[in-house]
Design goal:
The chain contains four helices and 19 strands. By secondary structure, the protein is mainly beta. The protein has a single domain (about 110-480), classed as Porin, CATH 2.40.160. The radius of gyration is 34 Å and the shape is globular. The termini are far apart. About 25% of the residues are buried.
Length: about 475
């Protein structure tokens, strides 16, 4: 028994001597707070627990695993992967360098401007622009804005453009601020599009029946808007419009009269003139124009039309749309949903000219098709859009770019029984939204896809939250809601 105790004491003494001796591989905790040098030194001496002194590190007992072994199939795939990624890395470096350069010269520190354009004579702002439209082609134009026009709250706006499809437009208006709750717009304009596409009436019109016609329009009117509070507002818009449709002087081998000889649309060729009285109730709780993550943007309205051209055409157009914005799992990611419905009720005995029928036009669009692709007595549609930011000016809630994916589905119809799943058209696409100072919307470029040819658009307005003050900005109200 004594021998056993002696052996046990000897073993304990050996352990204590090994752990406390000068060659111990384990450093004892210091009595006082160590400095950085002692921490580094002690870190270098701490190794795995072992009996006896730690061996001196050498090639034989040390190996640093810098890269894990790579299989042959991985090596074969990395080459194409790096090659395909070169353009994206180059764009990233260029974009990153551009942002650094602009930031270094203080461009993001410039105070935001209330009006787009360069300072011009007589207190104006002059803005050259171009846009890629699905109907007119590439447009080149000039906008002139004159704030404080005959009053501090008033704005004068004039615009004009021409396009590669030989279209031309001149328009404009004046916005009068009538206090904290009332706004009044007065506007007029004229537009000619020599080569408008026409495929036929109804949801089953065929791409193979493509034809062209001339569309001319002129308009004048006013819009009175009253802010009711809590996001609600009412709008009254009486305006006079005159539409002319006739054979196109271009692409005459595919003119509407030649392609659709057996089934000419009502009112072609001809003229439709009359008064429209649009009344709507709107609600906007989004709070911002560029990146709303919550809120609603909705409208419901009715637009009676009375012809003044002796045709006796009378009808009422009913329209409703609603938009909702839902925040997603990451900051800045948003799902935007939009639905719309329109229906014309003919109040007379005369057929409605096809130029006055329902069609897909902004903001009620199927972005995979060109504007005015389908014509019918009614239309409906639904849109989903997923948005996410891809860059922002560093440390600023200012200029930036958002990417988005979208899907639009809908149809036109002659009667309610035409509405069915089989008649719906499905389109989709992607795009980029450019945001300006203060997070305001500036422009978008998007590609729409369907079972017909792709549609590329570059515009300075968005499909969602579409309240661009139509008459003030010289837009054709017969092609807008």
């Amino acid at each position: 028994m004594r021998n056993r105790y002696a052996i046990l004491v000897a073993m304990l003494a050996s352990v204590v001597w090994t752990m406390s001796g000068p060659t111990s591989a384990v450093a004892r905790p210091p009595a006082t707070a160590p400095d950085s040098a002692s921490v580094a030194a002690s870190a270098d001496t701490v190794t795995a627990w072992r009996w006896g002194p730690a061996p001196v590190p050498s090639v034989a007992n040390t190996r640093v695993m810098r890269d894990r072994p790579q299989s042959d199939w991985e090596a074969a795939l990395l080459g194409p992967y790096h090659l395909a990624g070169l353009p994206f890395r180059a764009l990233h470096l260029i974009g990153d360098g551009t942002i650094d350069l602009l930031d270094s010269v203080g461009i993001f520190d410039l105070p935001p401007s209330d009006y787009r354009g360069f300072p011009g004579p007589w207190g104006t702002y002059v803005m050259p622009f171009f846009a890629v439209e699905s109907l007119e082609g590439t447009k080149f134009g000039l906008n002139v804005t004159r704030p404080y026009f005959l009053g501090r709250e008033n704005i004068l706006f004039v615009t004009g453009d021409v396009s590669t499809h030989r279209s031309q437009k001149v328009g404009g208006g004046v916005l009068f601020g009538l206090g904290p709750h009332w706004d009044l717009q007065v506007g007029a304009g004229t537009e000619e599009v020599p080569a408008v596409r026409y495929y036929g009436l109804g949801h089953d019109s065929s791409e193979g029946d493509l034809s062209y016609y001339f569309r001319g329009s002129a308009w004048a009117g006013f819009e009175l808007e009253r802010n009711l509070g809590r996001g609600f507002g009412v709008v009254l818009r009486p305006y006079y419009s005159r539409l002319v449709t006739k054979e196109s002087g271009y692409r005459t081998h595919q003119s509407l009269g030649k392609v659709h000889t057996d089934l000419m649309p009502p009112g072609f060729p001809g003229e439709s003139a009359g008064w429209t009285f649009r009344f709507s109730l709107d609600r906007d709780t989004t709070g911002e124009l560029a990146r709303p993550s919550t809120g609603e943007f909705s409208t419901v309205g009715a637009s009676p039309f009375l012809a003044t051209d002796g045709s006796g055409v009378r009808f009422v157009k009913f329209h409703a749309s609603t938009e909702h914005f839902v925040p997603l799992w990451h900051t800045g990611r948003t799902l935007a949903a939009r639905g719309f419905f329109s229906r014309i009720a003919n109040m007379g005995d005369e057929p409605i000219p096809f130029s006055r029928l329902e069609t897909f036009t902004r903001p009620d669009v199927l972005r995979g098709f060109r504007d005015l692709r389908y014509y019918g007595v009614g239309s409906l549609g639904f849109t989903l859009e997923y948005r996410w930011p891809i860059w922002n000016a560093r440390n600023r809630n200012g200029p930036g770019v958002d990417a988005y994916l979208f899907s639009d589905t809908g149809q036109v119809f002659e009667k309610t029984s035409d509405i069915s799943y089989n008649n719906l058209e499905l389109t989709g696409g992607c795009g980029l939204r450019v945001l300006g100072d203060g997070g305001g919307f500036s422009a978008r470029v998007e590609l729409g896809l369907s079972d017909e040819e792709p549609v590329l658009r570059f515009k300075f307005s968005q499909t969602f939250q579409y309240r661009p003050k139509v008459l003030l900005h010289g837009k054709d109200p017969t092609r807008r809601r």
